[in-house]
Amino acid sequence: xxxxxxxxxxxxxxxxxxxxxxxxxxxxxxxxxxxxxxxxxxxxxxxxxxxxxxxxxxxxxxxxxxxxxxxxxxxxxxxxxxxxxxxxxxxxxxxxxxxxxxxxxxxxxxxxxxxxxxxxxxxxxxxxxxxxxxxxxxxxxxxxxxxxxxxxxxxxxxxxxxxxxxxxxxxxxxxxxxxxxxxxxxxxxxxxxxxxxx
Length: 198
Fold this sequence. Notes:
The protein is mainly α. Helix content is 50%, strand content 5%. It has four helices and four strands. A hairpin with an 8-residue loop joins strand 2 and strand 3. Helix 1 packs antiparallel against helix 4. It starts with a helix and ends in a 6-residue tail after the last helix.
């Protein structure tokens, strides 16, 4: 049962990463457009900054290389591991999974994803600020603003997929392992109990 569920979750994880990979290609394209419009492309918000989704390996699995893991998220080699081999011994070595997941779920984000907190700023090559709220089209500035807004939307969509990957999907795999260990433990206890036939 666990194997079937594991494959289903891994399929969803890979589909999520594939969507991130495709968004990454669009992000590269729009960064080029913004740059070609004479704007300095700033660093992306910290939660996705320098993230790279790698092309599929020989098994067709995508992977994410990142320096940032959300507080309630996880980052482990899901593709080359399995429920049977287990990941929990590294993540929760003390083995008290109920307490670990309860406390883990209460964590809050110190660095939330934001495009409106002033940390991401847009400047022309001459140092002047790009007015994203302007309504004019001086020297094609409307197209420049559109390219910037399109890039921001791509960043946001990429982050949405990343949070789903790190916080929801990877935890699903871990919970499968918790369930499998619990069933195995209960089965072992039941198998060791003496049975009297009347």
